[in-house]
Specification:
Length: 205
Amino acid sequence: MSRYRGPIKRLSRKIADGNVLDINPKFFGSTKRMSPPGKSASVRKKSSEYAIQLSAKQAILFTYGLREKQLRRAYNRAVRKKGVTGTILLQYLESRLDKIVYRSGLAATLPQARQLVCHGHIKVDGRKVDIASYEVSPGQIITIREKSKKFVKQLLEVNPYYTERENHWIEADLENFAAKFKEVPQREDLDPNLKEALVIEFYSR
């Protein structure tokens, strides 16, 4: 599955069961109409178990901007660790460099954060990292390259970051274009609309 580049709200209505996914809410505009597109709820057929699991998987792919191979790789890694596999999967995805750049407010959207990383604008502990999937460890500090600060400042002035949820596991210092990944978030800190257990069931079939 390639990355989705179409209307954000329409896809969220389709795969999030009437909920707004944990991405920049301002791109949704009005959230009054969040039922799935197409037929009205009164005539819509009941979804099969496979369809429900598939929608849950698509919601995670969309929220984290992943391709199918990337999510499958993350799942294979999560099942090898002790603990709740679904929670471990989400914690790993939240530790990706592009996600932390986005959550810290150094980018307005996840695609923008990924672009900043891949174009070499981001440093981790003073070393340039241009791999979006790079796993950041607790205690590591993310900064904007000195030559890129003016460029990033202009981006954020035009399209500032916005969130309705506190990301307390990240300590952001936007004045100095820096952020510290303090700790791995717990499940209750993350989007309650994500149904990672269904994704585990989908892959373990």
